[in-house]
């Protein structure tokens, strides 16, 4: 077969030789397969364009008799217009710069047609390969790489790995990368593998307390280290280990604490640690080694400062111990490295001074339990709820008080704390909880300020069997035929609490043995029993004596065991009390009401007789009047000082609405001022006279314009002789022994003294 020559020139001015893609051997009639053409190479970034890549020829027609075309990516597919062909000469041109990193090769189809458009040859593949150039720098995958390494790490310890990429052809030196460290400070403690980028330690000496962070400048280069370069940063953190023990800032500490107070902070123990703050290698943990046998102190760690906070967890007592000497130690939460140096001040002494304060009294037993029987009489001893004063060096007196006693049942002796009942205890009180009564007692000293202790007194109210059981229903109905009905179920209740309540025992009265011949009682449960007839009984009401009288109505029953309608009246009579008893009760009530009415009428009549005797029995109204005269002489003719008719016939006075004219002035009133006369309702019966007089005297006493009636006034001599008699001459014609002055008490408190003087003794 014929050989096929291909002339391809890259960057040369010599034109390529024609490429016969469809050359056919002479004398052969069969169709041969197209030639396999080797790829055509062209460098990326070729700048002289258009550039002839190749010229294709067909030997089936003479020059000018064939039309050539190409199709595929870069021609009529994306990216368009990169390649073109001269349809008459068959020259293939490069029309644009190529980028291998975008497309590294193109596969085109070449066609040969005659001038009439008929296919002369089968389509043939034409492959164009883009040759790589070192036009891309290597790029680190990160701008900053980080890594961690423990302080004190041995040489060769892996820390981190730096990685970079290159967009050039990985099969060429254009992408052959090499790593290096450009800068890592004064001490070369780290190295990087030039092929893998792994960073490791190369020597000992890493100490976080000296240098905690290292910054390395990394470089990567292609062309095996001789080409394009790029840089990145590696930050290496030195992680802490517990290679420094915590230490107290001083060997001795002194604090003060008040006695009788728990749960308070009394001092701080300062420590220092060079390890990383906040880490377990830095956090301190404190232990009390000596001086606290009873566990009265505790030390916790301040999370911010790492200091120890000393607190009192149990109250101290100055009287029993005035000073404590504690020995405390400190260490980290994390164990100390074996190679770490020992702390110089890993322990310290803490002196605690206990200050004396006034403490509240302490009850000997709190809470205190006691018991009292229900219904106990007032004055029953309950308990002695006493307390002691812990301040033994201060002579103080303790007093006792009640703080909570909702039923006010108790009395507390102020000096001794002895408690007695104040009134009878009621077991039905709502303040009893499961039979217990709670009271609060206070014990207070006499210091300034006083301290008070609170004690709880729990009193068990003991149940007493003071209530007999009662039938739930004292009546019932039974069929006269024992074979009918189910009998009568009896129930009982008891106000007493267990164990004085149920179970109940039901029995007929032993004093009536004949009851047992006709009746039987069988226990049903702890609170109920069954009553039955032994033999057939006549219809009627039967009263059975148990502990309580039971009325049983015996009636004729039907087939269902229920009383027939004809026995309804009998059942009604036996449902409660008998008709005769009901009539007796109603009659007694009526007679009692009549008796009360008669007594009320009689008392009203007696009262009216007394009032009439008071006013009508006096034949004369003898009354002395203290009068004020402007001149000597005169005497009894002036009767205007007081209207005596108000005492004689008050009901006959002029009505309040009638015109009464100007009221006369009191002779002892100032002339320039007329006192106000308020209207007063006149009494309508003799029984209102006492109130009327009292109201009048009160009005006169409260009148600021005149002296009161009982004011002592000084008068000149008025002469001798008077028609008026003395007080002792009132009704002197009658003996005192014949008069009853007790009715004066009904006039009000102002006449009580007069009744005492003249009344019967």
TrEMBL record:
Gene Ontology molecular functions: beta-catenin binding; cadherin binding; calcium ion binding
Primary gene name: CDH15
Cellular compartments annotated: Cell membrane
Membrane-traversing stretches: 579-602
Positions of the Cadherin domain: 49-140, 141-248, 258-363, 364-471
Signal peptide residue numbers: none
Keywords: Calcium, Cell adhesion, Cell membrane, Cleavage on pair of basic residues, Glycoprotein, Membrane, Metal-binding, Repeat, Transmembrane, Transmembrane helix
Protein name per Swiss-Prot or TrEMBL: Cadherin 15
Organism, as annotated: Sarcophilus harrisii
Annotated Gene Ontology cellular component terms: adherens junction; catenin complex
